[in-house]
Design a protein that fits this description.
The chain is built from 17 helices and 15 strands. The protein has 466 residues and is α+β, with helices and mostly antiparallel strands. The strands form four sheets. It has an eight-stranded mixed beta sheet with strand order 7-6-8-9-13-14-5-15, sandwiched between helices. Strands 10-11-12 form a three-stranded antiparallel beta sheet, with helices on one face. A two-stranded antiparallel ribbon has the order 1-2. It starts with 10 loop residues before the first helix and ends with a helix.
Length: 466
């Protein structure tokens, strides 16, 4: 059934409504001369193109954008792809089995940010000839105005070189075009909205549908702006032009896994490091440099992927500096691969249930379900998102509402403050303003410092007055 014309959307509509993650799915389905991705003022990638394409409200675009209100949602896609799933959970979707653990085979756990399971599964697919290439994010030459980008690895060495987490905007248009142009079978590693975009692209393109054999999802908190790297550089006493390489999570087996340390390599060979908790934008939950569209995502664990991976943020795993993965398997083929790896002692995985998986990502689920319900109740212009969460402004304590409002404000205000600081060549403006915002956020959220004591007293007073 065709959607009514008044429900169709254009690339321009989605961008102006703050609902574009810059995945590149729409651009990949357009001609190369027709559309491309470009950096916006917030340090995010957004589609640009000739006027007719950019402003055209077409059915093809409306059905391929992962945030379009008429595109099939995660439940529809998952039901179509995994109709015989053993388990169906409202938080993590359809799945065959779930595990917690890590890769045992040397060269995976030590090179990855977490337990090495993402790279191990991808390498197994290559070694077994189940795919000819794996699309994943890897470092690129920073002279190209980016530090990371998608590439397709066709051998294990190049795949391993791309291991680790990349909190940086990337897009898939080039690798989707490459998969269309070069015959073979491919696996794609991506965050939830990108995985959904891949499935929407395969619905529209029979060549991609034939060639993309597996999708591997990464649990996602939200996407960051490319400005975060420059902010880190400022706080380590250098300019962006000095940076040659970025490692967002330096692994140290002697420290808890959730004690993130960032390292920036200078062009002169020096490396500088700083723990995230000493960076003004280092508290992930505060929302610094968050992509606007992430406020309207309800998929934490990549529910449409054949297999999903995240960090096991529960004890004792979060204190294990070697890294531990939580793994959700949906494909029967990949479940067999995992089972064979366990039998051969290549991986060490313990079965867990949906409740365990949910607990490992508790903060993300609060933001994407409870917080999303509240945000959906706010007045907003432009395209109205259609989500699996029902709008609700009433069933939250007042302080929790303030936290979501402040997080939203920090996400929007941080990029504006950054642009001002950069415009006047005054990094201190951003650092000072960021510290102030962070102090308020942590006081409100974690009851830290005198600000926290003020909120605690106000909350007790309001409780007594009810």
């Amino acid at each position: 059934m065709r959607p009514p014309p008044d429900r169709l959307v254009s690339p321009r509509d989605m961008v102006s409504s703050g609902l574009c993650t810059g995945c590149g799915g729409c651009v990949s389905l357009a001609g190369e001369a027709q559309a491309h991705l470009a950096w916006d003022a917030d340090g995010q990638l957004k589609p640009q193109g000739e006027r007719r394409w950019h402003r055209g409200r077409t059915e093809s675009f409306s059905k391929c954008c992962p945030f379009s209100p008429i595109a099939p949602d995660e439940d529809i896609i998952a039901a179509d792809r995994f109709p015989r799933a053993r388990h169906i959970d409202p938080w993590i979707g359809r799945f065959e089995a779930a595990y917690v653990g890590h890769a045992v085979e040397p060269g995976f756990r030590d090179r990855g940010s977490s337990g090495g399971m993402v790279s191990w599964v991808a390498a197994e697919l290559l070694r077994r000839g189940m795919v000819d290439g794996v699309a994943h994010v890897a470092p690129v030459d920073p002279t190209d105005e980016a530090f990371f980008g998608y590439s397709i690895s066709r051998d294990e060495d190049s795949l391993r070189a791309g291991a680790k987490s990349r909190y940086y905007p990337v897009e898939m248009s080039a690798i989707l075009r490459e998969m269309r142009d070069v015959p073979g079978r491919y696996a794609v590693i991506a965050i939830p909205c990108f995985i959904r975009a891949v499935h929407l692209a395969t619905r529209a393109d029979p060549i991609l549908r034939e060639r993309i054999a597996f999708t591997m999802g990464l649990v996602c908190g939200h996407m960051k702006s490319r400005h975060m790297v420059e902010s880190f550089a400022w706080q380590m006493g250098m300019g962006l032009e000095d940076v040659s390489q970025v490692d967002f999570r330096v692994k140290d087996p002697d420290r808890p896994a959730n004690w993130y340390t960032a390292r920036l390599d200078r062009r002169d060979g020096e490396a500088r490091t700083k723990d995230w908790w000493h960076l003004v934008d280092g508290d992930w939950g505060s929302g610094f440099f968050q992509n606007r569209a992430c406020d309207f995502c309800d998929d934490v664990v990549a529910e449409t992927a054949d297999i999903s991976f995240g960090d096991a943020w529960v004890e004792p795993h979060s204190s294990d500096g070697r890294g531990t993965n939580v793994v959700v398997v949906r494909s029967a083929i990949l479940h067999a691969l995992i089972s064979e790896g366990r039998a051969a002692a290549q991986v060490e995985l313990k079965p867990v249930d949906a409740a365990f998986v949910r607990e490992t990502q508790a903060a993300g689920f609060r933001q994407r379900r409870e917080g999303l319900a509240y945000r959906l109740a706010w007045r907003r212009s432009g395209v109205q998102p259609r989500k699996r969460v029902v709008a609700d402004r009433h069933n939250l304590p007042f302080r929790r509402k303030l936290i979501y409002r402040l997080r939203h404000g920090i996400a929007r205000g941080s990029v504006v403050l950054f642009r001002v600081a950069r415009r006047f060549h005054q990094p201190g403006l951003f650092i000072l303003g960021g510290r102030s915002a962070l102090a308020i956020y942590q006081g409100m959220t974690y009851s830290r410092g005198w600000i926290g004591r003020v909120f605690d007293r106000a909350e007790r007073l309001m409780t007594r007055l009810r």
